[in-house]
Design goal:
five-stranded antiparallel beta sheet; 7% helix; 1 helix; five-stranded mixed beta sheet; 375 residues; 47% strand; mainly beta; 30 strands
Length: 375
């Protein structure tokens, strides 16, 4: 009997160890968002407004640190080693949005103007003093655009030294442009769009997806260029809800995020896919307990969604909820990834320089990176 135990006991333990190691390897390979940066101070909060990672090695996040005494400090954090280490820098104004062309060259919109950097976000130079800018986009180091409140649409061809109103053809003049806030700008090569919504407009949704007439529509103004901004065409598009984001794919379609603020709405957000050149779209993501706050389209035709799980039964609770991340390879089947349990947010933004290096930042001071893509 002792001989049998010696003969069969060791292999049994060996098999157990092999199975255990296999299970551990599966757990390690599962898609997971791990914290790389966390602003953890009991007396203050770092609300990250935007995140941009022009390459897989360089990332910049910008936002506002505020404390219980009412003190506010604009802040930028920078990583040049794929998020392993982050360095914090103070900035003089409140950051609103970021845009980078390369690891070194980028721009930052603030509450009082536009700044540029040639050092990857470590130092900034003010190039435009103006309130009301919301977004910027540069096609190269010289040719760029700013958009914002009260019909702000301007263009530069000398790196921001001089700005001029966007030139629209006589047939494309926008009636009541001063009442529009242009807060979306997106380019894919020479194909670009700018979207403006009525100032102070709010969605008045009674029942999304219900019978006709249940929801009131808002009309947004869409400007489109096919030649890098030389000429623009405008159109008025009805939208049920608030058009919060539009992302264009190189594969001939766009993905848009529509938010619903009415507590009676069955969901807090819808994500739609629309073929470019048409107005007919189909919903590709909507869940009652997941409110989408950002979208990233990947070069491999997949996508990643940042969502928040609202606490309680309301999609409009004014307190942070659990961060929930989703990814899809075909924009049809979505997989929810594992996220560090500590992370809560009201809003999260994604940066994806390629299909394998993806980050998300929250308005509660956390930056996470996806360690493994869904297979």
């Amino acid at each position: 009997m002792n001989a049998d135990k010696r003969r069969f006991g060791l292999p049994a333990r060996f098999v157990f160890i092999c199975v255990y190691l296999w299970l551990v390897s599966l757990a390690q390979a599962a898609p997971r968002w791990n914290v790389q940066f966390l602003y953890d101070h009991a007396d203050s909060n770092f609300a990250i407004e935007d995140l941009d990672c022009p390459t897989a090695r360089h990332c910049v996040a910008a936002g506002l640190i505020d404390d219980k005494k009412g003190h506010e400090q604009g802040t930028v954090v920078v990583s040049s080693d794929s998020g392993i280490h982050w360095t914090q820098y103070d900035v003089k104004e409140r950051p609103i949005s970021l845009f980078f062309l390369s690891d070194g060259l980028g721009w930052m919109v603030t509450d009082r103007g536009l700044w540029s950097t040639e050092e990857g976000g470590r130092s900034w130079t003010k190039i435009q003093t103006r309130k009301g800018i919301l977004q910027t986009w540069f096609l190269d180091a010289n040719h760029g655009f700013i958009t914002g409140l009260k019909g702000l649409l301007e263009e530069t061809t000398n790196g921001g030294k001089n700005w001029a109103p966007l030139q629209l053809g006589a047939s494309e003049k926008i009636e009541g442009i001063q009442s529009l806030n242009f807060d979306i700008i997106e380019f894919r090569g020479n194909h670009g769009i700018i979207v403006g919504a009525p100032d102070g407009s709010a969605p008045k949704i009674e029942n999304v997806g219900a019978e006709k007439g249940a929801a009131s529509e808002e009309k947004v103004t869409v400007l489109e260029t096919l030649d890098g901004g030389k000429t623009w065409k405008s159109a008025s598009v009805p939208v049920d809800g608030e058009l919060a984001q539009v992302k264009m794919s190189g594969k001939g379609f766009a993905v848009s995020l529509v938010l619903y603020s009415n507590p009676k709405s069955p969901v807090g957000s819808y994500v739609f896919k629309t073929q470019l050149g048409t107005r007919e779209g189909r919903a590709i993501f909507a869940e009652r307990d997941r409110v989408v706050t950002d979208i990233a389209l990947l070069d491999n035709a997949g996508a990643v969604l940042a969502t928040v799980e609202p606490p309680g039964n309301s999609t409009q609770a004014p307190i942070p909820g659990k961060l929930r991340m989703f990814q899809s390879r075909d924009l049809k089947v979505w997989r929810e990834d594992d996220v560090d349990y500590r992370i809560v947010a009201q809003r999260a933004v994604i940066a994806a320089p390629d299909a394998t290096d993806i980050w998300v930042a929250t308005d509660t001071g956390a930056i996470l990176k996806l360690t493994e893509l869904a297979r």
